[in-house]
Amino acid sequence: DLDLLTPSTVVVSDDANWTGKTALKAKPSSDGGVIIIGKATQTSQWTMPYIIKLDSSWNTVMETGFVVSEDFPDVINDVTEDGAGGYVVTGTLSVGADSPSLLVAHLASDGTMDSVKPFQRDVYQEGQSIVRTEDGGYLIAGTSASNQSMTIQPGIWLMKLDSSLNLVWDTFTE
């Protein structure tokens, strides 16, 4: 298991184009390491989702940032392992657009994004939490509303996806 007393710093790559790497959440991984999600800021103040996987000795196993939408920043709020060495993330696609989508994306073990699924129910939605279910699918808890300030008909959006990230069922409650 991860020894929380060991490191004083964790060194991640230094990319001159992306600075201001900010950790938003850390979760234990099945191999005793940790997965850290966050964001990196480009010098132009553009942000992108960022993921770092550390093993139980605090070595960087995988580090990646990714952009799905070229016009607006994307945000990831949660990550889970896929059971085969990869990762599934959820968040918001195209934050700041007229109608951003709930984002679900699959990343291979090396951080390469190989599947992206946007889901839309109303004007504004975001994925907040993801867990892998016993059948190999995923349960997403998110929010949805009829406006971006989340003041018109806001509610909880619960979605069940299969292992290929296809929608199995969803429910919404205000």
Instruction: Describe the largest sheet.
Output: 4 strands, antiparallel
Mean pLDDT across residues? 80
Which stretches are poorly predicted, pLDDT < 50 over at least 5 residues? Answer: 1-14
Tell me, what's the shape?
Answer: globular
Q: In sequence order, what are the helices and strands, one letter per element?
A: EEEEEEEEEEEE
Give me the Rg, rounded.
Answer: 16 Å
* Strand arrangement across the biggest beta sheet: 1-2-3-4
Total of helices: 0
End-to-end Cα distance, whole Å, is 41 Å
Write down how many β-strands occur, each being a DSSP E stretch of 2 or more residues.
Answer: 12
Structural category: mainly beta
Strand content: over 45%
Helix content: under 10%
Q: What would your notes on this structure say?
A:
With 174 residues, the protein is mostly beta strands. A hairpin with a 5-residue loop joins β5 (75-81) and β6 (87-93). The protein is built from no helices and 12 strands.
Spell out the key features of this protein:
174 residues, mainly beta, four-stranded antiparallel beta sheet, disordered N terminus
List the SSEs and their pairings:
Blueprint: E1 18-28, E2 34-42, E3 47-54, E4 60-65, E5 75-81, E6 87-93, E7 101-107, E8 113-119, E9 124-132, E10 138-145, E11 155-161, E12 167-173
Antiparallel strand pairs: 1-2, 2-3, 3-4, 5-6, 6-7, 7-8, 9-10, 10-11, 11-12
Short structural description:
The protein has 174 residues and is mainly β. The protein has no helices and 12 strands.
